[in-house]
């Protein structure tokens, strides 16, 4: 297809999800599909297929990934061809009119090892109507922020709201442990409903006295007992530096983190 007819290429108009495959089995596929379904309907719906569109869409996705096997990282992107000129789309379409792009790479266990060093930077705040389930394919703002703020020693950015509360990193949701309680920023326009985030919240009561989806300011974070990030490729990973400040954790807290990690990923 010519790039001039691809709205993902022209305008960054796409939704996607990145799924890990282990020994030929998609990990957490139902979670991924649920979020991708919501994002696709929000961006491209309603469809002429009525209620049948969900089953048709799921079959399209699973058929596209059918030939994949082994240990892989699969990024599947949903986009639409350009119809007519300009930004504005017109008319309802069938879900079968949507296009799928599959990027498949070998999963290297090195990607799950090690810890993260984060650099704080101000977030470009999205409007209130932006849904937390929309994993959009336009990352230019993030790439530019990395260009401006990241230093050679850093692994990723930690976005801050105007009131200096943490939001998320450019690749992960963030969790903070303080005094036996687990905190994570509430999902919203600037915090994605991550698949691994959801899994941590589902089992958190087994490990922590209480779990709250509330904002934490950067001063609270720097004094936390533990900070970790989550995403579907790396799973759960520790954060050991923020803005060059080393974060030190007790052996007891590290042991609890390892148990949580095993529980979530099993």
From TrEMBL:
Domain of life per record: Bacteria
Known cofactor(s): pyridoxal 5'-phosphate
Any GO molecular function: branched-chain-amino-acid transaminase activity
Top-tier EC class: transferase
Pfam families attached to this UniProt entry: Aminotran_4
Catalytic activity: L-valine + 2-oxoglutarate = 3-methyl-2-oxobutanoate + L-glutamate; L-leucine + 2-oxoglutarate = 4-methyl-2-oxopentanoate + L-glutamate; L-isoleucine + 2-oxoglutarate = (S)-3-methyl-2-oxopentanoate + L-glutamate
Biological process, per Gene Ontology: carboxylic acid biosynthetic process
Family statement drawn from the similarity comment of this UniProt entry: Belongs to the class-IV pyridoxal-phosphate-dependent aminotransferase family.
Protein name per UniProt: branched-chain-amino-acid transaminase
Taxonomic source organism: Peredibacter starrii
